[in-house]
Amino acid sequence: MGEPKSANPARMPSDETSEMLLQVYWSKFHAKYPFLSRNEILDLNKRRHELSAHRDEINTQELHSSPRPVRATSRKLHLSLFKLNMIYAISARYVQLRQSKEAENTPEEYYNAASREIDAVLSVKDLDTIDSLLLLVLYQLRSPSYPGMWHLIRHAMTSSVETGLHRKARIPSLVENERRKRLFWCVYSLDRAVAMALGRPHSISERDIDTDLPANVDDDIDDEATLRQAINDSISFPKRSTKLSAAIHQIRLKIIESRIHETLYSVRRPDTVPADEIAILHQQLLDWKENIPDSPQMDSEEQTHRSRQMHLLHYYKSIRLLYLPRINSFESSPQEFQRCIDAAGQICQLQKQIHHTQTVAWSLLGLHATYLAGLTLIYGFYLSRSIFDFKFSSDIRACSTVLYIIAERWPAAAKYRDAFEELVANLIEADQQQSEPSSSSKEATITAGNEASSSSTWPVDHDLATTPAAPDFSSAFNPPEQGGWLMQDPYFHPVAASHAFGGVAGEQAWEMFEDLIDKNFRHQVKGIHLGIPTYFAPYS
To answer: Which residue ranges have biased composition labelled Polar residues (predicted)?
Structure first.
């Protein structure tokens, strides 16, 4: 499902198709990143055929004239067509990935139509330029072939800073001021999400930001008097849910995650971070969870990013982020270790539940989060086999199910599903082999009878394994001098030894994990690794 370069620009969609694509955008993207004006886009969609015809007239004129700077009126037309076609492309890609009915044009055709306007769009650096860059980022989130998503979001943040969006400003127009705040915090959210997944620095530090969060009002208000009244109402009734409540609450979570990142994922060692700092961050997450807003009454399709399930999914991602650097301290901090494992399991279970209860497609960030949650479970078992119980096996199966669903809808993700399945299979095989007594020790084993502690064996789980004893991976620290292969990694290190995971098969599975890692941006601090997909950074 890549972007074939031969795809022709799309024609404007029919009324039925355009309405469907806009509905997908409002419910699946705008609900989380509300940086566009709903009323403006609805108006552009109504005039799409008129805009397209005007564009053809300009093309004819340009063929018979010498190159000249883009005029303001001409750029406005290019911007309008760019935004419309990018929204169509983003939504068509979403429809394509969830395997529902096909749109009239492919996402690549809409994307190519938008690309024709890019020179005029980027000829001036203003708020519309930042809008356009964010639309490109949203498209690339679900596109296997792309021009560098991290570079795009970094460019958007640089433009935001140059425009002063990160600072409080005295803007006479309330509508314009709210637009600026919504735009900045959407750039901020995407910057944090991409940077954390890549293990790269944030584009702007928290200490350089002092602009307020957007007002908790409905997103379709563009009248000054109505907006002023809505803002006053939001101050008087702070718990009232609006169409922006969920997005604002997600921004608050990104701010907490950013603090976690700066505290635990900086150059200082995570074991030097005082326990009270971690406790404060954990309490902030608990407070965030307690204040998850109720969803306003609306169409069920618009509930995806406003549902409690989706909020909890992001909450457990943050808990995992908080305790992952402490996972190797399981002996001295068993509670923190268990919180990390539980959070990873919840991520897998919630991803599975969301698939069953809502119509969703998948993104690179979603694949990254699910795959890393599964690897956290496997690594947690390596550190402490006592975590294996029915819940643990259920979490492993949930991760496998989600990766299978993603791969079915997105063939490029199949190798990560296969790698995870290989790891689980070889883990079981290695455990069974190590639990079988050798011929020289059979008599001693029989004599020992039932003296072994019940805690040293796994419970029965026919879907995942039989009842082997938990494996001993101590030999993985010292691979054989010849033929031994060890994945050198500061996070998922000894568990990857090929001789402990089925020889060549185990080696291939972990080599596929190695393919995910962007080696230029690994954390070198022992115990920290974000599992960085190289497909995020082809030019690094």
So the answer is: 442-458
Q: Are 450 and 463 in contact (CB under 8 A)?
A: no
pLDDT tens across 384-401, in order? Answer: 888 889 999 999 999 999
The DSSP element (H or E) to which 174 belongs, if any, is helix 174-198
Instruction: Give per-residue pLDDT as tens, 403-448.
Output: 998 888 888 889 889 999 988 887 776 666 666 554 444 333 323 3
Residues forming beta bridges with residue 465, ordered by sequence position: 461
In-domain check, residue 282: no
Q: Give the burial string for 394-419 (b: 16+ CB within 10 Å, else e).
A: bbbbbbbbbbbbbbeebebbeebbbb
Instruction: Write out 90-105 in H/E/C secondary structure.
Output: HHHHHHHHCCCCCCCC
Q: Count how many domains the chain has.
A: 1
Q: Which domain holds residue 509?
A: 429-435+460-535
Q: With respect to residue 468, please indicate whether it lies within any of the assigned structural domains.
A: yes
449: left (phi over 0), alpha (psi -120 to 50) or beta: left
Residues with Cβ < 8 Å from 209, sequence gap 6 or more? 166, 167, 188
Residues 198-252: tens digit of each pLDDT: 778 899 999 999 999 999 999 999 999 999 999 999 999 998 999 999 999 999 9
pTM, to two decimals: 0.79
Q: Could you give the C-alpha distances from 398 to 355, 369, 391, 404, in angstroms and in order?
A: 11, 13, 10, 10
Question: What tokens appear for 108 in the block?
Answer: 């690549």
Domain annotation covers residue 514: yes
Q: Is 53 exposed, middle or buried (0-12, 13-18, 19+ CB in 10 A)?
A: exposed
Both tokens assigned to 245: 């409540």
Answer whether 150's CB lies under 8 Å from 198's CB: yes
Residue 513 lies in a domain: yes
- The token duo for 86 is 């990018």
**Sequence-ordered strand ranges (E) for 391-497:** none
The 8 Å CB, 24+ separation contacts for 394-397 are: 394/345, 394/349, 395/344, 395/345, 395/348, 395/349, 396/348, 396/424, 396/464, 397/463, 397/464
Q: Where are any strands of DSSP class E within 65-177?
A: none
Close Cβ partners of 367 (under 8 Å, ≥ 6 residues apart)? 403, 406, 410, 413, 416, 533
Residue 165's nearest CA partner among 201, 135, 134 is 134
> Distance between CA atoms of 48 and 35, rounded to whole angstroms?
21
